[in-house]
């Protein structure tokens, strides 16, 4: 995965709570056997009507958010199915950072594994960003190393992240390679477990 | 030694590597694999020239895409590709596979327990959020994404941050006509879809202990709908008896030894949880959801709520959106809502006891004209058991369609789709927008409530339906 540290981008406010992974990527698009190419199906039924026309009233279809790379949403973002196709679709569409008051556990892990920075802020901070992001071209500046977010208009917030996940994202590590370095410990665990059972 | 929960006991037994400032590296005892979330993981192994570390701890089946009629005709070439890809991957990496023609084929969370692969004290993962089902046996089981699937294939381990523990205590007894499905829907309606986020749940209390193993699976299955990756029940004698004689369970003397070990995993008296939530069994009615997430539901005697009655602005907005999508007016009695489709199946409610309970209601009655009702057994084994008891004939006589096993209309990845605008009474686990088909409207219910909706054409309190046979 691609490392991430300093990042700035246009913010798209998706003012909905409990956005589930069935909405992020509907099941008819889960049949591909590749990791790429899911961006075109992101939020399919919210972006397009039954005839495939763009729904003009959906926020992501508005011109000012076409270049957005940071998605801001309500609480419990990514709930439901464990499908990793959801972060694949977000990334492929162009979102590298997602901000919400809370994320579903499996979705959050899936983001980390794909180099997407999912950031938990308070409800008040998220509301403030949602409001400010109505203005065209509104950008946020994220610094993962320092764990802070700012804009050009005085907004500043700190965020928490597990130190291990932070290192993974900063370095773009291949997690399997990291684990395989512990081969001896895995083997000795297996020997011990076998002798007990 | 300080008293421990079943969750802590299993966790501690599986730590391979622990280091300050890092999650624990946990050993995984059983990895279940299906066709939708695995192809990219196998591809990753190939690209990096890696092997499957323990094919003997890995078991695969096909469930999401499989047709439930005309088994051999897979119309969608992309579905077919996904299934043949799984076949090739299992062959290449030496993994046992119950393919579409195999007598053990079925929904991964139905066949794991059925075959005795699922056992107390195991860590079990699968690229599927309903892996929480296996928690019914006192196993630490949870859904993972495809990158984690690849990680488990390659290393048989996972990095996991230690979660907090949540006790969901169900006191007292469930009333007549109230099922395990109603119990878990009521918990989610009361505490919300993210009550369990960041936690592992242990279900406790008299009403939980009274449940059969299949009912416990229904409860644990929907832990993820309350936000928790995993939900467990401490092993007891019922757990042991369910597993006795199962193909992949220990046999003979080994079994007795294992049983002692399993029973010792139960939560110790006085163990503490980070949080406890309670609900009284007696206060639970048969449930129906009216909205677009599993917490948007009520007892059958209620009516559709008014968005304005919710305290938080975010809830008012999301309820209003949900009612708009569901085309329901606030104040409508749930018992007045008509249905077009009825689906009995899914990893939540497709086991033999679910089918018996639904057949009990369907027997001697007819599916209402204009209603399409299908029954999809969870596995080939369930299907055969049901046919041996004549349940298939009861359903067919009543006008239900009797199908082959698979995930089917729960997520409509095969041809079993609820058409746009149609309303479905479903025994599945998610009522998200479009889940059962673009524009479909899902109401989650128990198997008896689904059968009652089929024969009356609308949601009906199953307790009001007198027995027509005997």
Can you walk through the features of this model?
The complex is a heterodimer of chains A (197) and B (470). Chain A has a seven-stranded mixed β-sheet with strand order 4-3-2-1-5-6-7. Chain A has a single domain, classed as Aconitase, domain 4 (Alpha-Beta Barrel). Helices cover 33% and strands 16% of the residues of chain A. Chain A has 197 residues and is of the alpha/beta class. The mean pLDDT of chain A is 96. Chain A has eight helices and seven strands; from the N terminus they run βααβαβαβαβββααα. With 470 residues, chain B is α/β, with parallel strands linked by helices. In chain B, 32% of the residues lie in helices and 16% in strands. In chain B, the strands form five sheets. A five-stranded parallel β-sheet of chain B has the order 5-4-3-6-7. The longest helix of chain B has 17 residues. Classes of the chains: A alpha/beta (197), B alpha/beta (470). Chains A and B meet through α4, α7 and α8 of A and α2, α3, α5 and α11 of B.
By CATH, the architecture of chain A is named Alpha-Beta Barrel
Number of domains of chain A: 1
Instruction: Work out the strand percent of chain B.
Output: 15-25%
Low-confidence stretches of chain B: none
Strand content of chain A: 15-25%
* Tertiary shape of chain B: globular
Inertia-based shape of chain A: globular
* Proportion of helical residues of chain B: 25-40%
Helices of chain A, by number, come to 8
**Cα-atom radius of gyration of chain A:** 19 Å
The helix/strand class of chain A is alpha/beta
Q: Biggest sheet of chain B, strands in spatial order?
A: 5-4-3-6-7
Largest interface: A-B, 51 and 68 residues
> What does the main sheet of chain A amount to?
7 strands, mixed
**Arithmetic mean pLDDT of chain A:** 96
Query: How many strand segments of chain A?
Result: 7
């Amino acid at each position: 995965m691609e490392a991430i540290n300093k990042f700035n981008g246009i913010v798209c406010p998706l003012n909905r709570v409990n956005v589930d992974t069935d909405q992020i990527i509907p099941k008819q698009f889960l049949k591909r056997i590749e990791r790429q190419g899911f961006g075109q199906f992101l939020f399919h039924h919210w972006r397009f009507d039954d005839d495939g026309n763009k729904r003009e009233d959906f926020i992501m279809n508005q011109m000012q958010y076409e270049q957005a790379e940071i998605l801001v949403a309500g609480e419990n973002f990514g709930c439901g199915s464990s499908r990793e196709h959801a972060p694949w679709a977000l990334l492929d569409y162009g979102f590298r950072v997602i901000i919400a008051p809370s994320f579903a556990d499996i979705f959050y892990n899936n983001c980390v594994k794909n180099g997407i920075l999912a950031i938990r802020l308070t409800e008040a901070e998220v509301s403030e960003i949602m409001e400010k992001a109505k203005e065209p071209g509104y950008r946020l500046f994220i610094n993962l190393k320092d764990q802070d977010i700012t804009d050009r208009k005085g907004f500043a917030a700190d965020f928490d992240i597990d130190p291990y996940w932070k290192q993974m994202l900063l370095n773009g590590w291949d997690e399997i390679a990291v684990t395989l370095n512990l081969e001896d410990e895995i083997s000795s665990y297996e020997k011990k477990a076998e002798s007990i059972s | 030694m300080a008293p421990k929960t079943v969750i802590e006991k299993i966790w501690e037994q599986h730590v391979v590597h622990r280091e300050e400032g890092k999650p624990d590296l946990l050993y995984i005892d059983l990895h279940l694999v299906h066709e939708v979330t695995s192809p990219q993981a196998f591809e990753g192994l190939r690209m990096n020239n890696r092997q499957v570390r323990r094919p003997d701890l890995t078991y695969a089946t096909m469930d999401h895409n499989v047709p439930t009629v005309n088994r051999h005709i897979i119309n969608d070439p992309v579905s077919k590709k996904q299934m043949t890809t799984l076949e090739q991957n299992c062959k290449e990496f030496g993994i046992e596979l119950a393919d579409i023609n195999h007598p053990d084929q079925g929904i991964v969370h139905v066949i794991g327990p059925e075959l005795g692969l699922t056992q107390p004290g195991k860590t079990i993962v699968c690229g599927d959020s309903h892996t929480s089902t296996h928690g019914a046996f006192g196993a630490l089981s949870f859904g993972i994404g495809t990158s984690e699937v690849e990680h488990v294939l390659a290393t048989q381990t996972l990095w996991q941050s230690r979660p907090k523990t949540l006790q969901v205590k169900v006191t007292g007894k469930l009333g007549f006509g109230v099922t395990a499905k109603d119990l878990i829907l009521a918990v989610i309606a009361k505490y919300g879809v993210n009550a369990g986020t960041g936690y592992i749940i242990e279900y406790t209390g008299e009403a939980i202990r009274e449940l059969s193993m299949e009912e416990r699976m229904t409860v644990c299955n929907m832990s993820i709908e309350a936000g928790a990756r995993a939900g467990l029940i401490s092993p007891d004698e019922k757990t042991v008896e369910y597993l006795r004689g199962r193909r992949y369970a220990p046999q003979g003397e080994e079994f007795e030894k294992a049983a002692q070990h399993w029973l010792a995993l139960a939560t110790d008296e006085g163990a503490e949880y980070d949080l406890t939530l309670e609900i009284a069994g007696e206060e639970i009615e048969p449930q129906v959801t009216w909205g677009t997430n599993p917490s948007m539901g009520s007892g059958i005697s209620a009516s559709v709520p008014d968005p304005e009655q919710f305290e938080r602005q975010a809830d008012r907005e999301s309820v209003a959106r949900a009612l708009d999508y569901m085309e329901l007016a606030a104040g409508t009695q749930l018992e007045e809502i008509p249905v077009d489709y009825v689906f009995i199946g899914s990893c939540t409610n497709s086991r033999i006891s679910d089918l018996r309970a639904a057949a009990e209601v369907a027997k001697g009655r007819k599916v209402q004209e204009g209603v399409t009702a299908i029954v999809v057994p969870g596995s080939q084994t369930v299907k055969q058991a049901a046919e041996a008891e004549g349940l298939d004939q009861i359903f067919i006589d009543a006008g239900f369609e009797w199908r082959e096993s698979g995930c089917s209309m729960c997520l409509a990845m095969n041809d079993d789709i609820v058409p746009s605008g149609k309303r479905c009474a479903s025994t599945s686990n998610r009522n998200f927008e479009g889940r059962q088909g673009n524009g479909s409207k899902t109401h989650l219910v128990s198997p008896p409530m689904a059968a009652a909706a089929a024969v009356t054409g609308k949601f009906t309190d199953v307790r009001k339906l007198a027995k027509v046979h005997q």
